Amino acid sequence: MSKKKSYRLHGHYCKICGEYKANEKFSGKGHAAHICKDCSKLSAAEKEESQTLTQLMNLNVGRLNDSKKKWLENRVHDRRPEVSALAQEIYNMHFPYAERNARKNSSESIH
Ligand SMILES: [Zn+2]
């Protein structure tokens, strides 16, 4: 019975950039907050945007429950262009038919 934990190989997770970094990339405070030293230098708005993008990337895997779907839908209409573009991409991946219907509906008004 040898159950070795493997988290040491991956270091510590940063919730802002979504990367696993070595423990020395985190300050004591950043460790608890899951924010690496690089990301802690960002402004509050930049942190929030980066974290949102990370959360969107995490939606790539697995099924969406209702609350995740709602959150993703809201991000599609986010005022930050990077966030809404990525959200749209991920939304289309999860709901390819929704995109097709939206295009069909809007094609008449565009031309
Ligand atoms: Zn980071």
Tell me what the structure shows.
The protein is mainly alpha-helical and 111 residues long. It is 62% helix and 4% strand. Helix 4 (44-58) packs parallel to helix 6, helix 5 (66-76) crosses helix 6 (81-94) and helix 6 (81-94) crosses helix 7. 13% of the residues are buried. Residues 14, 16-17, 19, 36, 38-39 line the site of zinc ion.
Give the secondary structure arrangement, pairings included.
Layout: H1 7-10, E1 12-13, E2 20-21, H2 28-33, H3 37-40, H4 44-58, H5 66-76, H6 81-94, H7 96-110
Antiparallel strand pairs: 1-2
Helix pairs in contact: 4-6, 5-6, 6-7
Q: What distinguishing features does this structure have?
A:
mainly alpha; 7 helices; about 110 residues; binds zinc ion; 2 domains
How do you describe this structure in short?
The chain has 111 residues and is mainly alpha-helical. Helices cover 62% and strands 4% of the residues. The chain is built from 7 helices and 2 strands; from the N terminus they run αββαααααα.
* Spans where pLDDT lies below 50 across 5 or more residues: none
Largest sheet: 2 strands, antiparallel
* Structural class based on helices, strands and sheet pairing: mainly alpha
The 3D shape can be described as elongated
Distance between the termini: 68 Å
Strand order of the largest sheet: 1-2
> Number of helical segments?
7
Helix content: 55-70%
Task: Name the ligand types.
Answer: zinc ion
| Whole-angstrom Rg | 18 Å
Query: Number of domains in the coordinates?
Result: 2
The run of helices and strands is: HEEHHHHHH
